[in-house]
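Bumping with the actual sequence this time:
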Amino acid sequence: MKNKILITSLVIIIVMGAFKSELKYKDSSLSPEERAYDLIKHMTLEEKIAQMTCVWEENAQELLDSKGQWDANKAKQNFPNSIGQLGRPSKLKNKLTAKEMVEYTNTIQKYFIEETRLGIPVIFHEESLHGHAALEGTSFPQPIALGGTFDPELIEKLYGMSASEIRARGGHLALTPVVDVAREPRWGRVEETFGEDPYLVSEMGVAAVKGFQGDASFKNKDKVMATLKHFAAHGQPESGTNCGPVNVSERVLREVFFPPFKRCIEEANAMNVMASYNEIDAVPSHASAWLLNDVLRKEWGFKGVVVSDYYAVSELYQKVEDWGNWVAGSPSEAAALAVNAGVNIELPKPDCYPYLVEMVQKGKVKESRINELVLPLLIQKFKMGLFEDPYVNADKAHEVVNRKAHRELALEAALKSITLLENRNNTLPLEIKKYKSIAVIGPNADRSLLGGYSGWPQFDVSLLEGIKNTVGDKVDVLYAEGCKITTTSGIDEQGNKMASADGWNTAKVGLPTKEQDDALIEEAIETAKKADIIVLAIGGNEQTSREAWAYNHMGDRTSLDLFGRQQELFDRLKALGKKVVVVLNNGRPLSVNKVSEEADALLECWYLGQESGTAITQVLFGEYNPGGKLPISIPRSVGHIPCYYNYKPFDRRGYLNDEISPLYSFGYGLSYASFEMSTPVLSKSTLVNGENIAVQVEVTNTSNIKGDEVIQLYIRDMVSSVTRPIKELKAFKRITLEAKEKKTVEFQLTSKDFAFWNINKEFVAEPGDFKIMIGNSSADVKEVKLEIK
């Protein structure tokens, strides 16, 4: 008996040893691809499909005990085959500090590595639209504001800082950047984009991906994987409503909406792409094999992962009532549609993909297809080094989120984002010694203004606080709210300032009564009467412009006018005869026609992040000279939509008894300095296809103050086989000039810059005449002719 037991034990040891020796995926000397190919050989169908699923806060009860602590027994019971990703661990249970998140992610990682059969680590994904959306995360300006910087180097550095914060806390994947081209100002998600121009969005998107991923070696554990979203054409939904159909031609897709994605993949090696909610030509993106397989993978050579948008696979079936696509009859059919189209993983929770086991067994989905989609998910885990070095240090995380450089960059980004729209009689900058009292008035004067997809940063400076910090006891600062935009944002039930993120998440949007606003307006008038000058903070908030993700969480609008009684507040204050400086904070363009005509100065500030009040104050008092430009045109009304600058020649012919031009054009922005540009000079008058050409322009600061100017280069094809836009941005450069300084700026163009999808759907530069235009906005340019042969 003893001999039999000994022999049996030896057999088991030999078999286990042989199994371990065959586990090549444990060998770190092999490439990520080799290791992934080996690992998948050892996986059951159930384990493969588990890698295609994610859990997040809605699954918390399946992972945590009644006290909110990690429960290994629950995890084993509910997820016996492991999971692929865990979404937003920073708030899986309440809101976690940097140290708490590290302890949490390390605990979860340790379980899945040590307690599951194959020990496959988990990817933790986080939101980082404009900084890590977590407690203690640095909050930078919203992307629409960052687009206004026209500064890709700043963008790369900024998202690099965000990556370091996420990675230090245990995260691996950012569901960012948004590279949608925003062509519909009614849409509540405009603030998430870099603007209306495909070239600008591409430049900013490439910079953001490089910031997140670096060289994608992930050796220093300070980079994370980026996710391009939303593929494709999410930025021009029908009627401006989120998730609405996008009715555009393939040519428009290829020339407007595809380029940012294509360039981010080809130039920055973006590792993930998120499919969009909308449909194109009646096919939802999550079910579009043409979009995700033919274009993305076969045509562009994308080797990474396509992640679903949250609940979008479920919406192929249905979500609630008439919300959804209804192209599948059941969750299992929805899963099959998405997998066959090319969606690697379902986010944020396992609604449909668990049915894939059944669909494979029934022959509706091939297991080989599952293998194709699981493989990139595994490769990414090997590339991130998670099999060898899966844990992070809590003290390091605390140090990273408290770096002084992060706060300094947040301020720099905010300053560079601010756009001066009006400055009558040189009202700005304000001289402190000229004023005994300043009235700071408005619903946005003393509140959090971070916008959507925000976290809870350690600093959040309001305009009122910024002004008080600057003037100290030299000037009497008077304050009145003036009116309310919404009543469910700004101040909570306990009378404390509400965080922007909490207001954005709130489903119900409350509105003030007439009596409330009447009293606030009268109080503001009496306050303003006592002041020498008025700074009025108006615009929108995170509840009047946001992602409309449900019937009880709307954010798209039918009007671009100021919300509520803000216009009345402005009119009453202006009637006092005092100077009124208007500060706009908003997530989408606003049709501020009367404010534009009558304000003594007007600043477009969008949402500037945690240093908002400090940055605006520095601009108001001349500590910083604004140089931002508009990344999106501002229409005069909803009736003027579409308003984007790169329209076709037969468009914008005019309206009966109304102006056709935008209120402010793409690329527009003033400065306290003044600049002059020469007519552009070409290195040659004729360009042979395949050659390059240099374009030079001389820029002079004609003022006595240092300032920034953004030099913008546009082209126009004068005769073409299909209609072409009247202008297309092809290059830009933000420069700083000292007083009276002169500088020559040079751009290099290739024949590819003049190419488009011709009548035969070939991407070529057609011979003929072109205009080369250079200026400081799309509406103010000097031009020269170029011939292409």
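The tokens above came from a reply further down the thread. Residues 139 and 690 are 44 Å apart (CA to CA).
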